[in-house]
Amino acid sequence: MSDDRFQTSRRAFLGAMATGGAVAALPAAEARAQAVATNARIVILGAGAAGAALANRLTARLDGAQITIIDPRQRHLYQPGFTLIAAGLKPANYSVSRTGDWLPSGVTWLQAGAANIDPEVQQVTTTDGDVVDYDYLILATGLELHYEGIEGMSRDLIGQNGIGSVYAGPEEAEATWREMDRFTETGGTALFTRPATEMKCAGAPLKYTFLTDHYLREKGTRGRSEVIYAAHSTSLFGVPIVNEKVRMLYERQGFTTVHNHVMKAIDPGRKVATFETPDGDEEIGFDFTNVIPPMRAPAVIRESGLSWEDRWVGEGWAEVDQYTLRHARYPNVFAAGDVAGVPKGKTAASAKWQVPVVEDQLVAQIAGDTTDHTYNGYTSCPLITRVGRAMLIEFDYNNNLTPSFPGIIAPLEELWVSWLIKEVALKPTYYAMVRGRA
Amino acid sequence: MESPSFGMFIAVFEEMFGSGLFWSMVAAAVIITVLYLYVLIRDRSVSWSKFLLAQLSMPVGAVAAVLLLWQVTHSGLSDVGGPIDVIVLLGVAAVGAIGMAIAVYTVQSLIRGRVSDDA
């Protein structure tokens, strides 16, 4: 048997060790562009995903800049996790971390809201009365959930009378799960909607419809239930090829779809929602519903003169070029994240792609240079179709699918691997992004 | 994703497990691999009796890896929906099997020492 012995050598052993050492040293060896020296005063409004990521990236790229970030929120919320919380798969604290943990040292964090922006004199006034002058301003405030835009609706109704609302926050997402869990035990009428305004993650209302259907089937109550989806327009999703796929899946699952229905009022006592339709108002009763409010820019943006006037009227999104994210009238102002007035792009994935563009555009501007780094409208939506499966849908301004793993992960197929990405990989990727490392 | 780099993957894994746990796991994997190479060099041969037990442990490692992943991700066999899912499932099983085999072989070699069982 000795002939079968596999001979090895100490030299091979040492060689393998050396290779391992070289691989371990790789991250440290990553090239970093030389910092641009400047004494520019940069103010970032909002310490959410886009704001914190920009604070981290600009700190690394600029030498000597005075960066101030203005945000009263002590909690940083990982919003893509709300769906998982509202599906009973994660606890509320899954989405919660501390704002301070994501901000780099060297950045001044004013723990107050922004009360006023004057783009002419380049000043921001905080709710504490501090006046902050800036040379460059980045709007990353996020958006406002306008629950009062639905008559009879308010945040405190979430979690009772069959009313849920996944978007409102981690605790509300958990309260929504309790209502959905209770509803799916008995079955009945489940009503799903979306607003007519621009909104965060337009796939989320669809996901939650699928998830409720999943639990109805799992608990054997689907047979005595009706699942209604009231779309605000003639389609279910803004990207035609995805819309067609969702239409097929909705048919397969036996959902009742109504179009051109926008929720305008809700009566929690009677459990009836009123919809504005082309044929006048229409009432639909429910045993469970996921209310998604109209969305708009925060008041400080709407009142700043920085909003679009002729597009998305009344919603107040910042008037920026959709490719450079630079303001149309004030070239020293940028927007990133939900508040940016661009088509599509109100997701964490969009923020991840917008942040490096704003960074490069701003740094180039400070250095007296230009860059051709632009944002193409990239958005990603892991469209959950049941617990355990999702479609990894990615697209751009042109409604083209832009798969990250072409030929490997099919975007319009319900896959376990896409679910794994949503459940395991997206949160760490998000946090790496917030730290400016991804 | 935009041009994922090696550093980005490291950053993502650090966020996934926490910096300490991630690098501990990397260290554990490196140590076991190094010990495996060490016993190979020390013994100057593969011990086939130890290798047999290591091989027998492979299905255990494969099943354990898959069950752990299903447990952690609230999913199961019925969620496999396309070819890539089958490939990933087999890949996870293969990694579990190989990892288990290396670990079992190394532990045996360290405990039982150099035994010329197959000489």
Number of helical stretches of at least 4 residues of chain B? 4
* CATH homolog superfamily of the largest domain in chain A: FAD/NAD(P)-binding domain
Report the span from N to C terminus of chain B.
Answer: 54 Å
Query: Helix proportion of residues of chain A, in percent?
Result: 25-40%
Q: Give me the secondary-structure category of chain B.
A: mainly alpha
Strand content of chain A: 15-25%
Which properties best describe this structure?
heterodimer, A: 438 residues, alpha/beta, FAD/NAD(P)-binding domain, five-stranded parallel β-sheet, 24 strands, B: 119 residues, mainly alpha, 4 helices, globular
Can you put this structure into words, describing what you see?
By secondary structure, chain A is α/β, with parallel strands linked by helices. Chain A folds into 2 domains: 36-85 and 97-143 and 297-366, 3-Layer(bba) Sandwich (FAD/NAD(P)-binding domain); 147-295, FAD/NAD(P)-binding domain, CATH 3.50.50. Chain A contains 10 helices and 24 strands. Chain A has helices spanning 10-29, 49-61, 82-86, 99-102, 170-186, 204-218, 240-253, 299-302, 348-366, 416-434; strands spanning 36-37, 41-45, 62-63, 66-70, 75-77, 96-98, 108-110, 114-118, 123-126, 131-133, 136-139, 144-145, 163-164, 189-193, 226-230, 256-258, 262-267, 272-277, 280-285, 288-290, 295-296, 333-335, 379-386, 389-395. In chain A, the strands form 8 sheets. Chain A has a 5-stranded parallel sheet, covered by helices on one side. A 5-stranded parallel sheet of chain A has the order 13-20-14-15-16. In chain A, strand 9 and strand 10 (131-133) form a beta hairpin. In chain A, helix 2 runs parallel beside helix 9 (348-366) and helix 2 (49-61) packs across helix 10. Mean pLDDT of chain A is 93; it is low at 1-31. Chain B has one domain (6-112). Chain B has 4 helices and no strands. In chain B, helix 1 crosses helix 2, helix 2 packs across helix 4 and helix 3 (48-72) packs across helix 4. The interface between A and B is large, with 48 and 42 residues.
